[in-house]
């Protein structure tokens, strides 16, 4: 089984971008940890990042057409993107929204997620560890759907 881990805008800057909020791990560090975690669970991983909303929409559609599992950190598009919400709603696959920070503890404009309504569940506030937690949660979603 394949899982897509999609990362939105500015997450390519992790490690140097507001490390007091997002931590010191780079996206490459997180990808390495996700690859190891997925392998241990018998999952194949497609790990991607884009600053473009359209790329993320295309990749959600691609994950759905392949019947993959999906983890998405939509980053700032979380708070604005109806296009991503619609893409996620159209994807009938197991899907998890993920945030490094606890968006409810931040500025008012970050406290609402436009996209989360289309996710099976949301993991936030655990920093880079959240990616591992999301992979484990996705694995159990996949297993529960199969049974
Ligand atoms: C984020 C939270 C968003 O509000 C922000 O725009 C991001 C990252 C997080 O992972 O905590 O870029 O999705």
Automatic annotation (TrEMBL):
Q: What class of enzyme is it?
A: lyase
Q: Which UniProt keywords apply?
A: Amino-acid biosynthesis, Aromatic amino acid biosynthesis, Lyase
Q: Which Gene3D superfamilies match?
A: Dehydroquinase, class II
Write down the chemical reaction(s) this protein catalyses. 3-dehydroquinate = 3-dehydroshikimate + H2O
Q: Where is the active site?
A: 22, 99
Q: What is its EC number?
A: 4.2.1.10
Highest taxon listed in the record's lineage: Bacteria
Q: Where does substrate bind?
A: 73, 79, 86, 100-101, 110
Q: Provide a Gene Ontology MF annotation, just one.
A: 3-dehydroquinate dehydratase activity
Task: Copy the pathway line from the protein's UniProt record.
Answer: Metabolic intermediate biosynthesis; chorismate biosynthesis; chorismate from D-erythrose 4-phosphate and phosphoenolpyruvate: step 3/7
Q: Which Pfam families match?
A: DHquinase_II
Q: Where is this site: Transition state stabilizer?
A: 17
Q: How does it assemble?
A: Homododecamer.
- Report the function annotation for this chain: Catalyzes a trans-dehydration via an enolate intermediate.
Under the heading HAMAP family, the entry gives: AroQ
State the family it belongs to. Answer: Belongs to the type-II 3-dehydroquinase family.
User: What is the designated name of this protein?
Assistant: 3-dehydroquinate dehydratase
């Amino acid at each position: 089984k394949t899982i897509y881990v999609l990362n939105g805008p500015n997450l390519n800057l992790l490690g140097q971008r507001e490390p007091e909020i997002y931590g010191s791990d780079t996206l490459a560090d997180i990808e390495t940890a996700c690859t190891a975690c997925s392998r241990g669970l018998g999952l194949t991983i497609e790990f991607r990042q884009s600053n473009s909303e359209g790329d993320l929409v295309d990749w959600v559609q691609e994950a759905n057409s392949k019947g993959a599992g999906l983890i998405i950190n939509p980053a700032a598009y979380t708070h604005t993107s109806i296009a991503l919400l619609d893409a996620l709603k159209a994807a009938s696959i197991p899907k998890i929204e993920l945030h490094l920070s606890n968006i409810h503890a931040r500025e008012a404009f970050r406290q609402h997620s436009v996209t989360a309504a289309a996710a099976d569940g949301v993991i936030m506030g655990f920093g880079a560890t959240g990616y591992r937690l999301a992979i484990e949660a996705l694995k159990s979603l996949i297993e529960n759907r199969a049974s």
